[in-house]
Structure formats: structure tokens, C-alpha cells
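FAQ: What does the model actually see?

It sees only this:
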Amino acid sequence: MFSLNMFLTDPITIVLSVIICVCLISLLYGWNRITSPNFPPGPKPLPIIGNLHIINKRAPYKTFLELAKQYGPVYSIQIGARKMVILCGYETVKDALVNHAEEFSGRGTLPIFHDVNKENGVIFANGENWKVMRRFALTTLRDFGMGKRTLEDKINEECDFLAQKLEFFKGKPFENTMIINGAIANIIVSILLGHRFDYEDPKFLRLMSIINENIRVLASPSVMLYNTFPSLMHWLPGNHHKIHSNVAEFQRFIRETFTDYRDKLDINDQRNLIDVFLVKQKEEQPTGQYFHNENLVGLVGNLFVAGMETTSTTLRWGLLIMMKYPEIQKNVQNEIEKVIGSSVPQMEHRKKMPYTDAVIHEIQRFGSIVPTNLPHKTTRDISFKGYFLPKETVILPVLTSVLRDKDYFEKPDEFYPQHFLDSEGNFVRNDAFMPFSAGQRICAGENLARMELFLFFTRLLQKFTFRLPPGASDVDLTPTDGATRSPKRHQMCALPRS
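And it is asked to produce this:
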């Protein structure tokens, strides 16, 4: 006998329903929303799915690099009904993001991000809201020490806590993900909330676990399908539900925190970024145009995630690479002994440490933490590289193609600190070093990240030598799949140096 339950659970019925729904969507919206006669070329799309079938679901940037060999540095792909333009290579990406900064300054929308942010905060915002939030974030980060000695002292204090944690293992193997996450996260937490967390604090561990899980599942095939067919996939099982649930939990924590801070607010004693925002909110009343609660939730969430994830992942790459190349680790330690000795590292030491500076730059280049960048979009019609890009065209500037551009890096696929050294051992800048992106959407926390990487890296190598666990044969530099490019979880030994 027919029942509604049978209809909802029968797999053949579900598949047929999916096909019918997708066809209806295609009839309503069309396969190709951009019909410019001079649009960049690209692989021929299939009905309904576009080019989805040729994309590496776990590492899309690999497909983008391969397609650039066939179609050149500017080409298009179609995901579902939406076309987007891919930019590859330093010259092309720089031309777009720097020389045409305003035209490429929009943030392209992905459904999974729009669901949880609604263009609030700074990373996923657009228009005047983005400009106001970015200006506020940069000003407040500077006011709380970004680029100043006061923040150096806070970072070095956190380095002490991290060193104590590593000493606890007494040279025995351990896995470092949550420990490094915690140390780096505490720096941005001190700016956002005005205090640090203990590494074993259950709430802190839960927040970091949420971020780590979301970063991992964002690259899953089900999320890619959700971003392609959000209206359809909303009703089907998949990792998008896990992301929505995790973000809701994370945002509850933020709301509870700023509600508590509002009750204790003293406009004459603004202790952290949330306090400063709440004061701005009072000043903006009754309009509440920009400094409203949803922007506060979005901004704090953006800064927390961005302030922890990319820098901690880079530092984890750095320690893993030092285990892979012990001779490079020893060279860094020799330079630390020569310039710093047993003193506490300071940013002023960096200009006297060209080799260490080159190694840190190469860690960032080789790690290529955000390989495809976040999507941009054009803010107006523009002619670019001989093609016409209409307003609202989604743009993906592939950062890995810049950081591994063969015209700028002698050994792009190898770890080679000499990319940033001249023949006499002096540090040299490389134009194609673009790990923080470029232009108007460049990472707002770039200066903070640079400071953290230098101070944490030098302090750790000053105090420890990092080695493989006994019996391990080699270091695996194969990255994991995720929204960011991170090292696989691994065991390491931190041997105290006398």
C-alpha cells in the first residue's frame, strides 16, 4: 500500500525527485546567466551541473591550475547555473587585485557563507557596510597593539605558556594541532575579549573544535553540491547541516559574551574590541545602520576564525618542515644564537636575521594556506585582459598559482628558502609573495600574523629542537583536504635545548 513515508525514503523516488527539481530550477534560472559575447573561454559545461564533473572536489585549485595550462591565465568555468572567472599567475592576479583594485573589490557570494553571515562582519560583507566594518577593525586592532611593542609583549607572554606546555611532554611524542591553535587563538582572543583562555578550558577547546571541523568539511563534496544547488540540497542530508549547527553554537557564545559585556560597559574604560563596538553602537543610535548586533557577531566570528586558523596552520607547517629538513632547522637555530642568544625575541631582531626571515616566508609560500583565495566579484562592468566582465561576475584569484609561479620562484614545488635570499645571504623580497592576497581585500590582520609568526617561530626554535618520534621513518608533507591547506595530523617530539 502506498504511503508518504515510502515516497520519502525510497532511493529511486528521491533520485527522480532530485532530477525533476534540478530541471525545474534550470528552466527558471537558465544554465548561463552571463551571455557576454567576449567572456573568457573555458571548458564546455554540461546541462544542469556545468563543469562540476571535472572539478577536483577535495582540492579545486589543482583543477584550476591544470585548466590554466589549456585556457591561459584568464578563463571561465561554470558551476551549476553560475559562471565564474579564474585568474592564475602573479601578473594576472596582481593586475586584477592591485591595478584594478576597486573593480575587483567585491566579495563573491557562496551560499554556505551567506547562510551563516548574511554579509555581516567584514570578510563576507560588501558595499558601504564592508568599508565601515573593515575601517573599524583595522583601527581597533591598531589601537589594541597591532604593530606595537605592547602586543609583542603579549605574544611573548603567550610563547611562555606554549613553551611550558611543550616542556610538559618531556621530549615524548605528542600531536600539536589544538596546542598551537590555542596559543595563536589567545592573541586575537585577548584583543576581542580582553583575556586569554587556559589551553585545557572546555569552552575554548569546543570553540576551536568547531572551527577545525568546519574548515575540514567546507571542502567536502556535499558542501560543493550545496553551493551549487542550495535550494535543492537544503532538504537533503549533508555536511552543510553540520556547518550551520556549528556556526549557530559559535554565534551563541559570541552573543552571550557581548550581552555580558554590555551589562558591564564603561565608556571610559574600553577593555577590548567588543567594548569599543558597543560604545560605537550607543553613539550610532537610533539608526543602528552599521554597529548593530549582527555585525558584531559577524565581525567577532570573522576575526576569531581568521586570527586563529591561517597563522596556526602556517606555524604547524613550519615545525613539520623543520623536522623534514633538520639542517635548515639547525641553520635557523644558529642564527638565533648569534643574534638573540638567550634573550626574548623582538621584532627588531628580524632585520638582523635574513635566513630565519627567508625560512618563514618560504613556509608561507610553500604552505599556501588559502590556495584558491575567497571569491571576489566585479563591482562594475570592466574590460580586463581583452575580455569583457560584466558587473557581479564572480572572480577566483588562485593564490597558489601566484605563490608557485615559475617565473618568480626557481623551485616552485620545493621548500627552498633561497627564494628569498641573494647570493650573499641577504633577505630579498619577491613580488609574487602574496599569501595574504592583495588589493582592497588584503587580509586585515596581515601585520598581526607577521608578528606572530616571527615571534612564535623563533621562540620555539630557541627553546626546542623538533624531531620525528622514535621509529618514524620520514615526514609526510602531503596536505589534508579542507577549506585551508593544512598538514596532516602527526606526532612530533619537542626536545628542550640547553
